[in-house]
Amino acid sequence: MNKIYKKIFAGFMSPALLCSVLSVSYASNQNSESTSFFTVDAEESSSSVVYSTGFEDGKNDFTGRGGVEVLKIVNNDSFSGTSCLECSNREKGWHGPWISLDNILEPGVEYIVSAKAKAQWYNNISLKLDYTDSSGNRHYIDVLSAVSEGNWIDMSNGKFIIPKNVTNAYLYFECNDTANIYLDDFEIKTAPVHEIQQNIPSLKDIYSSYFKIGGAVTTSELAPKSAQDLIKKHYNSLTPGNELKPESILDHAATIASGSETNPIVDISSAKEILDFCRDNNISVRGHVLVWHSQTPDWFFKEGFSDSGNWVSKEIMLQRMENYIKNVFAALETEYPTVDFYAWDVVNEAWLDNGSPRTGGGQSENPNYSAWVKIFGDNSFIEPAFEFARKYAPDGCKLYYNDFNEYMPDKTTAIVNMANELKEKDLIDGIGMQSHLDVDFPSASAYKKALKAFVDTGLDIQVTELDITTTDLTESGFKKQAQIYNEIMDACEEYADSISAVVFWGTTDDKSWRANKCPLLFNEDFSAKPAYYSIIEGHEIPNPTTPSPEYRKGDIDKDNLLTISDLVLLQKYLLKMYSLDELQYSLADMNSDNKVNVFDWIILKRIIIDL
Asked: Which pTM was predicted?
């Protein structure tokens, strides 16, 4: 089956925008002569400046983050104009200028920040977002970073979002040591708002007869409406990227206050925005993760729940493990009784690539060390983790072991042996293949070999964190990426009887943890990449422009009437004040040209006037 890709590769602002698909055509499975043709219209709102200062008016809204810094406007060696901001008397690297955002910016809106910065001598200058969530946990998000050799540097196009229900939001600058920091031409503006492509097939519909199609998302990534629209259109499964990991939900202060040595207190409010979204949109959730060496604080394993305490005994840690797992499931049942938690990663990344356990030790020593191995001496903690998860997980929730580099032969063998032992005791339901891949490694055949080995255990398989990186950001590079995606998805379809879900790790390239290698199906502007089109090739394509027979064209509010309210909704959409869901989009497409624009508004207006 042939496909035609027409792309533009010129004048792009970031690697994530290097691939912009303008059109694709393909034949239907049922009729080789029929063709569906989808066009991509680049629709976005313009940016507007919400805060700007060149420090020329003598005003300074920045303060010292460490409380000891001296901030003043100086009139020498500015980048532009005659003035700049100097931050001196910095006693630590994190001391520096910061600006409160609480009364300037709105939660859930994406912004772009830029500035000119300079360090007193050679230094890496970082710009970060700092905020406190509803449970009192502080978050530090990287926004921009650049090296100053004592000269002015351009720090631009840093994107960030303040999540909802947070307080004390700041942007702050820091550098490696105590050098003076200088700022000039600081600006925050709204980011362009991109509309998703409503007139392309939904992935969850394409694969409905095979397995769930899901995505992973963080709270900040979910905040823009475009991201929500993309998820609602394409996914029927969602994985909180960080928000249900131990470091996000362990409540240290409450645990200390409880006085217990074995009952860690949890607070799932960090996942509130994501879980509310899933509840309100009837999207199933993959829980990630209960027992993991990473993103689990060392104090969880120490006497008195203190970083400075001694490591606890195996017996104490088993009690903590059980109570932690019990408390997580209890909190979710209490706060989200209607959410379908259909799968949970019980243990994550316990095996090295050579098939041996990790080295025992804390995260403060080495991020690859495992505190679980430190206490248990080996991977014997895995079985009780599954025992407790089986005891407390809700009915219908399947339990998985999850790992990366799962296609490395020695690791594959270790996972298979472990899984078979757990299966004999009815403690495990499936294996999660993270599937963080690259266009050059592993080969599709090597991946398929590991997949078959896992399928042969008789357990359910889920592809849990799929992304495929490429360093070749040219047309040919993205075609190769599309080919590998196609081969991996073909392998999943071949074993679809044993696979219940395929989950992509992220929404758009620019938000990926591997953003500089553009690993996902959608560009920064939410347009579909060749990789997207490659994995729908050969499938029956639902007609995206055929409205439900329940409604007539123009009935945008779906009340079975054509009234002025339909016209108002269409006008709001054109003014980017309202978003149309997939069905509404097709109903609003009055002239059936796969676009919704002012011409459709004129047609609808004439019909309503005639009525």
From this structure: 0.77
